[in-house]
């Protein structure tokens, strides 16, 4: 089960992506690693990982 800090950060980041008109392709919680993973963007070029304590990291790939 995701922690409340992860869920809140996920909500904020998804709202930010939506405000920038970026489609959200996938949101997944990995029960083993205890991380939320988001793929967004027209071509899935934005990857966001939200760690257990609510910290997050993003990567943008060029196509």
Task: Please describe what this structure looks like.
The protein is an alpha+beta fold and 63 residues long. The chain has one domain (4-60). The protein has one helix at residues 4-19; strands spanning 24-30, 35-40, 46-50, 56-60. The protein has a four-stranded antiparallel β-sheet with strand order 1-2-3-4, covered by helices on one side. Strand 2 and strand 3 (46-50) form a beta hairpin. The longest helix has 16 residues, at 4-19. The termini are far apart.
Tell me the β content.
Answer: 35-45%
| Poorly predicted runs of 5 or more residues | none
Rounded to an integer, what's the Rg over CA atoms?
Answer: 11 Å
**DSSP helix count?**
1
Q: What is the helix/strand order?
A: HEEEE
**Structural class, from helix and strand content?**
alpha+beta
Number of beta-strand segments: 4
The largest pleated sheet is described as: 4 strands, antiparallel
Mean pLDDT over the full residue set: 94
> How are the strands ordered across the major sheet?
1-2-3-4
Estimated helix fraction? 25-40%
Into how many domains do the coordinates divide? 1
What overall form do the CA principal axes indicate?
globular
First-to-last CA distance: 34 Å
